[in-house]
């Protein structure tokens, strides 16, 4: 079988690629895409840990049940990602409409 | 062909999808091409979910991420259509960003390798048990079971609804 470490290293690499996008891209939409990559890396880690270290089973009315913490957390990450990208893109469109730019560095009114 | 090799082959294939798509997303100067690379990367992640015996999450990955989120991103790129043909360079601090990302990965990879080798490895190399087809049912029960995750589930639904309403309010054109 594949070792757990293999999945975790791919997750770490994907996280760092996304981090580079967030740090280096100027376009706000590209930064959002970097955040998506980072969230996906987290999801890989959650599901890999769930598969290899499932924290036991819980007895329910339906009988014994596999613990589902990892997959449930991954599902919540999906929800948060959808909410984040919806609000982020709405902000991008609003900023573009008002200022004709989507470059993150040009939108710095709050800095001063 | 022994099953070991087949598993590593599939793993390597999806790794190439994920990492290649990720690098394409980050480096392509055309934003629309970056979104297409992102689809490849997300598809590789869906393949990983299948490898990890989480078929429901793989389906959701394709439906929600590729089907909804990337399409939303492409819509945004097209609505701000000045960007479509724009050649975009990285910002002035990209070198620091690159060094930071490489150092972060080096630290993480070193920690993972150290934790998975030696006398008593912290990270296991075998899955705990065979996961059967029941895992989808178990996930469904876990999300609505009073003793498990029904409260976070409802909170997540509220968060999503609030975010959608907020997105409409923010993006609406003012009269």
List keywords for this structure.
heterodimer, A: 112 residues, mainly alpha, Helix Hairpins, B: 175 residues, Four Helix Bundle (Hemerythrin (Met), subunit A), 2 domains, 6 helices, 72% helix
Concise structural overview:
The complex is a heterodimer of chains A (112) and B (175). Chain A is built from three helices and two strands.
Number of strand segments of chain A? 2
Strand content of chain A: 5-15%
| CATH homologous superfamily identity of the largest domain in chain B | NADH-ubiquinone/plastoquinone oxidoreductase chain 6, subunit NuoJ
Please compute the radius of gyration of chain A using only Cα atoms: 19 Å
CATH architecture of chain A: Orthogonal Bundle
Total count of helical runs of at least 4 residues of chain A: 3
Would you tell me which CATH topology of the largest domain in chain B applies?
Four Helix Bundle (Hemerythrin (Met), subunit A)
Q: Which structural class do you get from the secondary structure elements of chain A?
A: mainly alpha
| Neighbour order of strands in the largest sheet of chain A | 1-2
Shape of chain B: globular
Query: Strand tally of chain B, please?
Result: 0
Specify the overall morphology of chain A. Answer: elongated
H/E series of chain B: HHHHHH
Residue-averaged pLDDT of chain B: 83
Order of helices and strands of chain A: HHEEH
Largest interface: A-B, 75 and 93 residues
The percent of residues in helical segments of chain B reads over 70%
- Tell me the CATH topology of chain A: Helix Hairpins
Describe this structure in words.
- The complex is a heterodimer of chains A (112) and B (175).
- Chain A is mainly α.
- Chain A is 69% helix and 7% strand.
- Chain A has one domain: Orthogonal Bundle (Helix Hairpins), CATH 1.10.287.
- Chain A has helices spanning 4-24, 28-52, 69-99; strands at 57-60, 63-66.
- In chain A, a hairpin with a 2-residue loop joins strand 1 and strand 2 (63-66).
- In chain A, helix 2 (28-52) runs antiparallel to helix 3.
- In chain A, 53% of the residues are buried.
- With 175 residues, chain B is mainly α.
- Chain B has 2 domains: 1-89, NADH-ubiquinone/plastoquinone oxidoreductase chain 6, subunit NuoJ (Four Helix Bundle (Hemerythrin (Met), subunit A), Up-down Bundle), CATH 1.20.120.1200; 135-175.
- Chain B is built from 6 helices and no strands.
- Chain B has helices at residues 3-27, 31-51, 55-79, 94-116, 135-144, 150-171.
- Chains A and B meet through helix 1, helix 2 and helix 3 of A and helix 1, helix 2, helix 3, helix 4 and helix 5 of B.
